[in-house]
């Protein structure tokens, strides 16, 4: 794909309307939040979210945070109750992400949650992020707007950053100046019913503990913003999974890629962006049939690397 120029938009009414239109059309747009710049896509459009992964060059799918303009909107995407409701009331809008049970009826694409039954939700305070959320009417999936392996950007210049930045890889960047917090949001989830710090960030753990009136559990030593994939457990189908299968055995469900007779096909046209967008939904659909699953070979380049990474994890023998 020939790179096309990335637009730089001003954070005025015209720029925000333009960004909202691009997002509704399934494009990716980088925009400022109070923590860091995020790379936004419509969270209900799996192909748009796949383009976020393609632009970042992420070698693996990690669940993404879904951003809403207010707590009421967030409560329509995830179940916000009990301690989560107290934290939402205390810190939203702001630099806090809550990992809560997903409402399947919200229509969030499977690639956003990487197939998990939970969803990370945040209501950002930044006026530009707020304006785009309200103008577009979309729930926006937004990882930090850096290429994979690079630090999170806190200016529009960092996002584009010649050599390793996203210039030419995304439709537009909304230039809203420097991010005031400058580090990612604090992430809190619940493990065995106990509030757990999954990632330290812009809101100090002590402030969260004060709001809860109780100490937070801490995620394992592997949790850090630099190893985000370690924060979440991975979706794995109950069924046995066989990879690089050119044919399915009689008792297997075949997930195909490219032209062929498979009942379930990641992309009959052999398009990796389409395949990424459908991966988790098709794995779940195949799993529901209750038979072993055979998956056709997926090319090992571009988004195919992330697809193969996730398939390999899903096929690996279960740990404990
Ligand atoms: O400040 C921020 O949080 C920025 C701005 C743009 O909002 N976003 C950000 O996204 O840092 P990202 O993708 O770079 O990091 C998101 C983190 C990942 O480490 C991911 O594992 C975790 O959130 N996460 C998201 N959903 C999760 C879930 N359902 N369970 C566990 N962890 C989850
Ligand atoms: Mg990041």
Automatic annotation (TrEMBL):
Its EC number is 2.7.7.87. One of its GO terms (cellular component) is cytoplasm. Its main location: cytoplasm. It holds the Pfam family Sua5_C. L-threonine binds at residues 35, 67, 122, 185. One of its GO terms (biological process) is regulation of translational fidelity. It comes from the Bacteria. The keyword tRNA processing applies. InterPro entries: DHBP_synth_RibB-like_a/b_dom (IPR017945), Sua5-like_dom (IPR006070), Sua5/YwlC_C (IPR038385), Sua5_C (IPR005145), T(6)A37_SUA5 (IPR010923), TC-AMP_synthase_SUA5 (IPR050156). Keywords: ATP-binding, Cytoplasm, Nucleotide-binding, Nucleotidyltransferase, Transferase, tRNA processing. Residues 13-203 form the YrdC-like domain. GO terms for molecular function: ATP binding; double-stranded RNA binding; L-threonylcarbamoyladenylate synthase; tRNA binding. ATP binds at residues 58, 62, 118, 144, 152, 199, 235. It catalyses: L-threonine + hydrogencarbonate + ATP = L-threonylcarbamoyladenylate + diphosphate + H2O. It is found in: Cytoplasm. Belongs to the SUA5 family. NCBIfam families: L-threonylcarbamoyladenylate synthase. Required for the formation of a threonylcarbamoyl group on adenosine at position 37 (t(6)A37) in tRNAs that read codons beginning with adenine. This is Threonylcarbamoyl-AMP synthase.
